[in-house]
């Protein structure tokens, strides 16, 4: 039986930051489950940069079904968790079921991959204090307020926590996360 990885997300998550790790980890032989506030078809978004804009723009992205609701997740069944970005983390950090799930991964020192705005979720469970992380660069003050040392780098690995800035960093992010996974929870 393949090791299970949990991917936590919701509406307005960045399409690439959900689907790239979902497919890459499945390709590697892991069984990936997408969890959201409820079982439903999720609406993802695409963030990109347009000339003349001071920040990114948002367009509708892909839709994808959630495999299970946060309330159905049994964290002990999963060897790792992936936390995509987009706008979803802004509201998901208020979900008590998700906070309980994420805290269990940190308490057990299981691998955690976070990208872009995903660290807003790990900050909400005090999972960043004393750690080195990266995130979408505009989140540097949030990461520092959460007690983390922020690094503006493609990927930052701190023990079992692997973080990246945004979807252009996917290859480095998954390469390093897979290195951690192969050591902690290899596919046999």
UniProtKB/TrEMBL annotation:
InterPro entries: C56_PfpI-like, Class_I_gatase-like, DJ-1/PfpI. Residues 4-178 form the DJ-1/PfpI domain. It comes from the Bacteria. CDD domains: GATase1_PfpI_1. Belongs to the peptidase C56 family. NCBIfam families: PfpI. This is DJ-1/PfpI family protein. It comes from Streptomyces aureus. The lineage of its organism: Bacteria, Bacillati, Actinomycetota, Actinomycetes, Kitasatosporales.
